[in-house]
Structure formats: structure tokens, C-alpha cells
Amino acid sequence: MAEWVRDLEFPRLDVPITVDAVYTVAPAGPFPAARGDSLYLSNLDDMVGSRLFTPTVYFYPPEKGRVQGVGKIFRRALADVLVPYYPLSGRLRETREGKLEVFFGPDQGALMVEARSSLRLADLGDLRVPNPAWAPLIYRFKDEGPYQVVHMPLVIAQLTTFVCGGFCLGLRVCHCLCDGLGAMQFVDAWATLARVGPGGRIAPSPCWDREFFRPRVPPRVEFPHAEFASVEEGSSLGFILRETKLVQKCYSVGEEFRTRLKRLAQTDGEPARTGFDALAAHVWRSWVRAIEIRPLDYELRLTFSVNVRPKLRAPPVKEGFYGNALCVACATSTAAALAGGTLAAAAGRVREARVAVTEEYVRSTVDYVEAYRPTRLEFAGKLSITQWTRFSMYESSDFGWGRPLYAGPIDLTPTPQMCVFLPDGDGGSLVVWICLPEYATAKFGECLSQLN
């Protein structure tokens, strides 16, 4: 494989964990909600794809004399940050219409777990590469369903110490309350209060304002919204994903390679494609070629989230807003056009889908969810890409122990048709993390490393 695209291996291992304590962490002071109160969630918060927790881990190296009392520091700062971020201390419930809302009842607060492992951080392998074997570092309830959010703590944190003196924060934040940018705003505020104490100033001040995305009356759906469409699985993809062994693979993609991809993705006389357009198109084409989807005239979909904050001008989203301000863009193409066509053509389709997410499209999405309230994720013919490179994962998570060695997710399941772009903590490279049928991994790596 070319030097600018490297296959990153992660070891298969067991991570033994002993849970020492489980705490309910309530806000440290008064906040503007009483028992029995509820808060409105927008339709962007309550889309079917947001009804889940986003799990992440943060590894911190040993620092002499500073591992003692780490749990107390994290708990105290969590209680402090839950005052301005008080909605995260509530719970979700369904109204009669099936819509979610935040409510404040007798069971409140975040969950904080303190645990220890007999391993050293060095035993976990390359900490730059997300590893599903790290799952014990993120707390889950024994009887918890894969998409369970109702009546759950909305912040679930596990602090695990290792025998070397290093430690790990495993964090789950409910996606219904925060998108990726909002979650990192919350983590940054928590980290600030851990570093400087309860008198510290957090910036920006958190803004709830979910009413900004209220639907119009009556709802006006003005676009076809292919991202929500129920499509009959008429290709070999469904059978392949059901009947073959799936594996998770990681590839480091260098900056020079991405620069060349972007250059190849341009077409004279057409609008410029971004680096994301080029890489997303390249991964999509490599995925189709490696899996060998049939029939070739079957129309496939590539979906990805678009941050709509910069697109909303009349009025703009308020500073400090930490809710979901995302819409799902959807590019379409036949398997034949992807497998046999040019990178520039595929990148053009990605760009068209991205720029189609306008202010009007956002309002139409809100109204679509209001009118139809989809209750299931549609996967037919689809690959979904999530771009974590835009999140300040490493910069936002200094709790007083410096930048983490790794900050990010660890597992792509339970959604097999998923690809994630991750920042490399060291700088210029980017990590492409994808779930593939085992038989297709060699060909995918080969296609990914080729500039054509």
C-alpha cells in the first residue's frame, strides 16, 4: 500500500475492569427548572438518527503524584458544569405524539462511575487507533438496548485508572441533547472547571433555545428528502451485510495524498470541490469497488451530516447553542457510475448534496419530521460518513492533565454501513475508519491508496 495511505492495525485484547463506585452527580447549585418542569426538544434533536448515545474515550498518560483524587476532581467539576448545562441533568420521556422532551423528575443527575484496570495504558495497543476492545472503558447498563435513551441519564461517565498511573475517561452523551459541536462545547466547559475550579468562567455561555427550530404551521415540506426515503433493497448489499463477516478497519491518510485527491476532484468550469467532497467521493467509490455491488444500475446513496449554523442568517443561531444543528445531505449515484466513473464526477455529486442544504432545506427538514416523524433508520443502498475532524476533540478535553493521547469513538457497531473521518492527534494525517465485509478489506485498501 502506498506510503501516504497506511493500514492501522489494532490488537484483539481483553480489558479487565473492576467498578469501585457509582455516583449520581446532581448540579452543584440552583438552576432554572423545578421538579415536574419539561423542556422542548426540536425536530432536529428528535430525528430517528439522533436517538442514541455518542460514546467517546479520552486517554491521559501517567503524571507523577497526580492520579490521586482524580475521581473527586472530575465529579466536582461535573456537578459544577451541570448548573449552566442543567438540561443534561434531566431525563427524556415520550409525549403522546411520540415526540421526546426533557423532563425533571425524582431521578435526576448525571452518572459517574469510578473503575480500575490491572492493565497499563501500554497494554492497550496503539492509542491513535480506535479499538472496539476498549468497550469496557465505557459504562453500559446490563439490560440496556442499543438505541435506548428514554429514562436514561443523559451524561454517563466512567473514569478508569490503570496500574501505570494513567487513566481514561469513557463518556456517553445523549445525541438528542447535543450534536458533535455541542458535545465538545460541554466537554470544554467541564474541562475548564476541572482545571480552574468552580469559580472559573466558561465560554461561550450555553444557550438552550431549541424553539429556534420549531416547525411551521402548517408544515411545508418543499424538498424530496431522499435521506429519509424508504428504498427497497434491490442490490446484493443487503445480503452481503447480513450473511458475511464484517470487520472494522482503520487507515491513516496523509495530508499530501488528500491534497492530490482534492486536485483530481476538480473540473474546469465547475464550482470547486472541497477536501471533504474529494475524500468522501474517493471512499464511496473504493467501497463500491471493493464490495462489488450488483446490479450495476442500482442507485446507491451516500449520506453525511452538514452543520447548518453557518447557513442560518435570518435570524442566526445564537452563540453558545449546543443542540442539534445538523441536516443530513444525500448524494445518489448508480454502482456503475461510481465503480467506472471519475473521481471528479463522484465529488461533484457529493458537493451538490452538500450545498443543497440551505436555510430553506433546514426548515423543510424540520417540517418533514413534524409531518411524518420517521421511526426507523433506512439503510438500503446506503453508506453514511461522519466527519469528526471538525470537532476540537483534543483541544477541548484538557482537564488539567494536558491533551489526551487519544480522543474519539471506539466502535462503529451497531451500524455496519458507516465510515468515520477522525483527526490524528499528531497533526496532518486523517484516519478513515470503516466497517467492511472481511472479503473486501484487501481490495478496499488497494482502491483507497490509488489516485485515479
Defining traits:
452 residues, alpha+beta, six-stranded mixed β-sheet, 16 strands, 23% helix
- Helical fraction equals 10-25%
Distance between the termini: 15 Å
Secondary structure tally: strands: 16
Briefly note the structural class of the backbone.
alpha+beta
GO molecular function: acyltransferase activity, transferring groups other than amino-acyl groups
InterPro entries: CAT-like_dom_sf, Plant_Fungal_Acyltransferase
Pfam family, one: Transferase
Family: Belongs to the plant acyltransferase family.
Structure description:
The structure is a single chain. The chain is an alpha+beta fold. 23% of the residues lie in helices and 23% in strands. The protein has 9 helices and 16 strands. The protein has helices spanning 70-81, 180-196, 237-243, 255-264, 275-291, 335-340, 343-355, 359-372, 441-448; strands spanning 5-8, 18-25, 38-40, 53-60, 91-94, 100-103, 110-116, 155-161, 167-174, 246-253, 299-307, 326-334, 382-387, 406-408, 418-423, 430-437. The strands form 3 sheets. Strands 1-10-16-15-13-11-12 form a 7-stranded mixed β-sheet. A 6-stranded mixed β-sheet has the order 2-7-8-9-4-14, with helices on one face. A hairpin with a 6-residue loop joins strand 15 and strand 16. Helix 1 (70-81) packs across helix 2 (180-196) and helix 5 crosses helix 7. The longest helix has 17 residues, at 180-196. The model has no long low-confidence stretch (mean pLDDT 94).
